Amino acid sequence: MALYVTRRLLQAIVVLLLVTMITFALLRAIPGNVAAAVMGPNVYRDPAAIKLFDDTYGFNKPWYNQYLLWLSHLVQGNLGYSWNLNQSVASLLSQRILKSGILVGISVILAVIIAVPIGMLQAVRRNKLPDHFFNGFSTIFYAMPSFLLGLLLILIFAIKFPIFPAEAPQGLTVGAIFANFNAMILPIATLTLITIALFSRYARSAVLDNLTEDYVRTAKAKGASERRILFRHVMRNSLIPVVTLLGLSLPGIFSGALITESVFNYPGMGLLFYQQAQKEDYPTLLGIVVVVALATVIGSLLADIAYAVLDPRVRY
Amino acid sequence: MSLMGIPPESPDPRISDTEFVHEIADVATVAEPLPTETETAVAAGLLPAGKPRSSFRRGLEVFVENKLAVTGAVIIAVMLVFCFIGPLFYHGNTTVVNFGNETLPPGAGHPLGTDSNGNDVLARLMTSGQISMEVGIAAAILATVIGVLWGSVAGYFGGVADAVMMRIVDAALSIPVLFLLLVLAAMVTPTEPVLIAVIGLVSWLTTARLVRGEALTLRTREYVQAMKVMGGGSTRAVLRHIAPNAIGTIMVNLTFQVADAIGFIVALSYLGLGIRPPEEDWGAMLSNGVTYVSDGYWWLIVPAGFCIVIVITSIIWIGEGLRDAVEVRLQRR
Questions:
Q1: What tens digit of pLDDT does each residue of A101-130 get?
Q2: Of B164, B174, B205, which to mutate for an interface test with A (greatest number of A Cβ within 10 Å)?
Q3: Which end of chain A, N or C, is less surrounded by CB atoms within 10 Å?
């Protein structure tokens, strides 16, 4: 067990290092001169200024030195500097990371609470009407562009029947967001539906797998009721693979969060990413990429470790 | 597949050599031109003539029995005809800006009305559909080619190469696709071939993972071992044996890749980094349309939205049908 966790941890570190390499390669692949991007094209008339800039920020060093410099900054929490917003990327993100966390966290928990019982219903009534109904439901939500889903919810619940506001809370602090929680309902509903569409299939097949397990037969033989078997045995056991698959779905969920945030103008990381992508603010973009990849790697690491802890049959 | 005209032998004693030849032939029809050895072998009387039920045929039967998959295939065929042949019969203004005609409701002359530039919505639906489908299919094929090569090389060689190659895949997979797409799309000028390349370059990872899993088991098969003993090189093993034998998994994955690629270009268009006007895909039509949602111009939203949802849904149905069909083929192995 300890060996497995150590190995998995080392693997995660290697993956993270590779992420930084990919990100750095992207940074290098960007055409143009950083000095010119920061100080404007007129700087080309003054090569001394370019040289001073490059010397100061290390752009004249070989690429591997630049990578190590960038990496050492990264480890110290220095994600770079957004010339565009004139602010360090770390301070930009610190305001927003929690907001995205709230949106993603609540949506994912809701999605699990909703998707697992639906998966159970589908598995028990396999190839019958409820199964087909929810299958069709999740396929359509998967096929529907996320922004269209968000806009439809706005159209129905904010314009036709003005129950909820169309815009997410704009408060600067987390407290302000919870104070205006009514405005969070539609963004959370959107991301929850996207997440359910992403992994409801997994929930169904996890329950199906568990229904054929020996312990179900044993419980039946002992005379346990159908309900007891489903809720006491199958549901708990199905949650384990669902959690792991959730770890794998995290990148997709973050992509969904980006669209959701831009539809509802919710000031999280996704919205920042989207806005800065249009301004070609690469330090911010790559800083966010590193943070999001870190979240994904940690998420799937935790999911894998949880799997090993929860399921004593798993031996590595 | 066979060397020196000798019919290949089945690696699995439960499968007769004849069936095995046909199985190889099935795989070959999809992957590469049918080897003539099989035909000559039949003609020379080495193999019995007649038609044993091949696994391909059995897979096809399962596919045809799946009503959703067939419906999906029909819908896709209809949509392809609509987008690529439709413009030959229906001529509408798709390029000239005409503000005198803007946002006309559906009616005579414009069955689906006009958009905010005075262009005919039905005609634009066809031309935009061409871009959506072209990008979707081409990007999926590009992603599949990269993924198959990467995955089969990693799986075939194993060891350090495998570990390094798959950790790279893990790392790239942990960056959400949309984030990667946005960075890349911001760097380039989004024309159609560029978008195909960008989407292809970010979506080959899952394919690589799947194919690598297949390659790990395929490389231990007797026929791969036999080929190695006979002096076949690694390139031959990967290109002629590993990749073609994983064709079932690859085709299923390719189908889902098309659905995802169409979804990606829709998302990119919504985020303003998709194809530049006057060209547009369904996603751009839709996201232009939704700005008029409070004006009640439903014909700017419903047609494009419907096309996107119905096409992606149909492709998913086809993919699920294919997966069931492939599983039937695999069960026999």
A1: 889 999 999 998 888 888 888 888 888 888
A2: B174
A3: C
Non-local (6+) Cβ contacts of B138 within 8 A are B196, B200
Q: What is the mean pLDDT of residues A246-274?
A: 88
pLDDT, mean of residues A159-184:
79
Residues of chain A with Cβ-Cβ distance to B309 below 8 Å are: 140, 143-144
pLDDT surpassing 80 at residue B321: yes
A285 touches chain B (CB under 8 A): yes
Q: Which residues of B159-187 are buried (b: 16+ CB within 10 A; e: fewer)?
A: eeebeebbebbbbbbbbbbbbbbbbbbbb
Which residue's entry shows tokens 């073609």?
B244
Taking the Cβ of residue B182 and every Cβ of chain A, the question of whether any pair is shorter than 8 Å is answered with yes
Q: Which of B331, B252, B328 is nearest to B57 (CA)?
A: B328
B75 touches chain A (CB under 8 A): no
**pTM, to two decimals:** 0.81
Span A218-230, pLDDT tens digits: 888 888 888 888 8
Q: Which residue of B has its CA nearest to A279?
A: B186
The token pair at B202 is 């970010």
CB-based contact B59:B329 (threshold 8 Å):
yes
CA angle B20, B22, B28 (to 5 degrees): 110
Interface check for A293 against chain B (CB to CB < 8 A): the answer is yes
Q: Taking residues A266-273, what's their average pLDDT?
A: 89
Kindly indicate the confidence band of residue B43, based on its pLDDT and cuts at 50, 70 and 90.
low
Q: Answer whether B170 sits within 8 Å of A18, measured CB to CB.
A: yes
E runs forming strands in A46-175:
81-82, 87-88
Cα separation of B22 and B90, whole Å?
A: 45
**What is the spatial distance between Cα A11 and Cα A300, in angstroms, rounded to a whole number?**
12
Question: Does ipTM exceed 0.90?
Answer: no
* pLDDT mean over A16-20: 89
Cα–Cα distance, B5 to A20 (Å, whole number): 52
pLDDT in tens, B112-154: 777 777 677 788 888 888 999 999 999 999 999 999 999 989 9
Q: Cα B219 to chain center, whole Å?
A: 25
pLDDT of residue B213: 85
Q: Do A146 and B267 touch (CB under 8 A)?
A: yes
Q: In the block, which residue shows the tokens 């000559």?
A: B40
Rounded Cα–Cα distance for residues B212 and B243 (Å): 10
CA distance A309 to chain B (A): 23
Q: How far apart are CA A39 and CA B270, in angstroms?
A: 31
Residue B273 to residue A259, Cβ atoms within 8 A: no
Contact B282, B39 (CB under 8 A): no
- Residues in chain A with CB shorter than 8 Å from the CB of B267 are 145-147, 255, 259
Distance from CA of A115 to the nearest CA of B (A): 20
pLDDT at A153 over 70: yes
Taking CB atoms and an 8 Å limit, are A254 and B176 in contact across chains?
yes
Distance from CA of B287 to the nearest CA of A (A): 8
